[in-house]
Amino acid sequence: MHPKRFASGLLSWICAEPQVRARSFEEAGYTECPFGVELWLPSGAVVYLQAVGADAPGHRPGTPLPPVHGDPLPVSKPVALPGEGPTEMAAVERWLRWRITTGQSAEISRVSLFQNRNGRNAVPYGLALTFHSGARVWLYFRHATPAGRQPGTGPLWRDLASV
Questions:
Q1: Is residue 150 part of a domain?
Q2: Residues near 8 by Cβ (< 8 Å), separated by ≥ 6?
């Protein structure tokens, strides 16, 4: 699945939850990277989620990748995000996994949280998705901005445990 198509699906899964707001990077006017979602948490904090992808093994770049379907993932345990005060980034990861699995996409075969990678990555928070086609998408927490601050500013990949 191409990151642009994944980001579009992610928006629909996120926006089904009335306590948050989200829009594409394009809608937000965010031009630092092409594909992603600006996620406004119930607390007023904002997380910029960058989608980066890799084609299925053997797929020729520039050619359409037809969807490959399999069994949808079981729905993850629901996660509530706080309406005020700090929100843990680990909770945002779990919340996103829950929203993605509620979408019941027959294309997604696995969703992994970065927090479970034991410090083996430069980006501390995000998700890794594998599709039945073999394609992959990584959803990086590019910016995390506490409530009341200008969204999308500050150091990239900042290791904030909460916002």
A1: no
A2: 24
Compare 106 and 115 and report the one with higher pLDDT: 106
Q: What is the pLDDT of residues 60-106, one digit of tens each?
A: 888 888 899 999 999 999 999 999 989 999 999 999 999 999 999 99
- Domain boundaries, position 78: 3-145
CB distance 64 to 48 below 8 Å:
no
* Total domains in the fold of the chain: 1
Looking at the domain assignment, is residue 23 inside a domain?
Answer: yes
Task: Output the pLDDT for position 162.
Answer: 73
The answer to the question of residue 158 being in a domain is no
Q: How far apart are CA 74 and CA 97, in angstroms?
A: 11
User: Which residues, other chains included, contact 155 with Cβ-Cβ below 8 Å and sequence gap of 6+?
Assistant: none
* Pairwise CA distance, residues 2 & 61, whole Å: 11
Q: How far apart are CA 122 and CA 138, in angstroms?
A: 13
Q: Which conformational region is residue 22 in: left (phi greater than 0), alpha (psi within -120 to 50 degrees), or beta?
A: beta
Is 66 domain-assigned? Answer: yes
